[in-house]
Amino acid sequence: MTLQGSIHGSYPYTRLRRLRRSEWSRNLYAESRLSANDLIWAIILKDGDHVEEPVEHLPGVFRLSPDKAVLAARRASNLGINALALFPFTETNLRTPNGDEALNPDNLMCRTAKAIKDAVPDIGLICDVALDPYTDHGHDGLVENGLIVNDPTVEILCRQAVLQALAGFDVVAPSDMMDGRIGAIRCALEAEGLVDTQIMSYAVKYASCFYGPYRGAIGSEGVLTGDKKTYQMNPANAAEGLREVALDIAEGADSVMVKPGMPYLDMVSRVKEQFSVPTFAFQVSGEYAMISAAAATGALNREQVILESLMCFRRAGADGVITYFGVEAAELLNG
Ligand code: PBG
């Protein structure tokens, strides 16, 4: 048989299995890589001392008091994790209609950020900007006559973001989905001289039932009145998500996020392709719960599904993944 151009590129000369034959070759030809460097560990905080409280539906996730969060940060840093995303559990008595605790410079988040920065200065700290952990109705913004009001909410979010940056957070991550908040927060940070604080925008954030376990974790379960469909996106929409990203970049976001993660990998891919900006995905609480539950029944191999799910975010185009599997995955990756 003679080799000619036309048949060169087809079977039997081309055999894609050739590259898959051995481990060294599969590794060499891998198009995406996953390491602890790509992980942002999501951590739930709770006030107190020596607190390590299991979270319902999230086996392996614990609410940590500031002292325990410091230990967790050190452990993460030693494993090569670059950043933590912190979320506060808030007791009912600290929740108010306007979420005033968000503006307390000595609140749980700010105290913990300071403690971590003192002890583990090299780890990046990311903070949600939104009112839902602090409101008694569980919404991310102010409610007037049953409506979540945009502009008055943005004013509070600006103050919240400045306080968080002053407390030591390197990255503020608005997760509230109010219109115009990225630009407003950027201006507020500039006005305070906080020119190096990064904004990671939850740009493509859907009104998703995959957040269920998170709401329990932060004490918002049963608190939330109604749903978040007037500000978070309809899961049916994709083009709208690209408009959200375009606006947030124009307003001064340093990076953008797609959330939830796994059911929305098409959006990760499209955002990365269209905008070429740092793009993150959030493997949210419901995804963690699904994987954990399936692993607990023996239906899935926990270690394998954790690593596969995280790698798929990388393949889709994510620069990094926020995940509750943080240290567990990092330990697996580090062998
Ligand atoms: C709040 C916020 C939510 C999550 C992160 N920040 C929930 C929501 O918007 O209702 C979800 C995280 C998760 O499910 O792991 N703005």
Q: What is the CA-based Rg, rounded? A: 21 Å
Tell me which oligomeric state these chains represent: single chain
User: Quick check: average pLDDT?
Assistant: 96
The termini sit apart by: 47 Å
Tell me the structural class: alpha/beta
For the biggest sheet, the summary is: 8 strands, parallel, barrel
Number of spatially distinct domains: 1
Helix content: 25-40%
General form: globular
Ligand catalogue: ligand PBG
Could you spell the SSE succession in H and E letters? Answer: HHEEEHEHEEEHEHEHHEHEHHEH
Strand composition percent: 15-25%
Query: Largest sheet, order of strands side by side?
Result: 1-4-5-8-9-10-11-12
Tally of alpha and pi helices: 12
Count every beta strand, where a strand is a DSSP E run of 2 or more residues: 12
Low-confidence runs of at least 5 consecutive residues: none
Structure, described:
This protein has 335 residues and is α/β, with parallel strands linked by helices. It has a single domain, classed as TIM Barrel (Alpha-Beta Barrel), CATH 3.20.20. 39% of the residues lie in helices and 19% in strands. It is built from twelve helices and twelve strands. The protein has helices spanning 5-8, 23-28, 66-78, 108-119, 150-167, 181-191, 212-217, 239-251, 265-275, 285-296, 302-316, 326-333, and strands spanning 39-45, 52-55, 58-64, 83-88, 124-129, 142-144, 147-149, 171-174, 198-205, 255-259, 279-283, 320-323. The strands form two sheets. Strands 1-4-5-8-9-10-11-12 form an eight-stranded parallel beta barrel, surrounded by nine helices. A two-stranded antiparallel ribbon has the order 6-7. Helix 4 (108-119) links the parallel strand 4 and strand 5 (124-129). The longest helix has 18 residues, at 150-167. The termini are far apart. Ligand PBG is lined by residues 128, 130, 132, 140, 175-176, 211, 214, 228, 284-285.
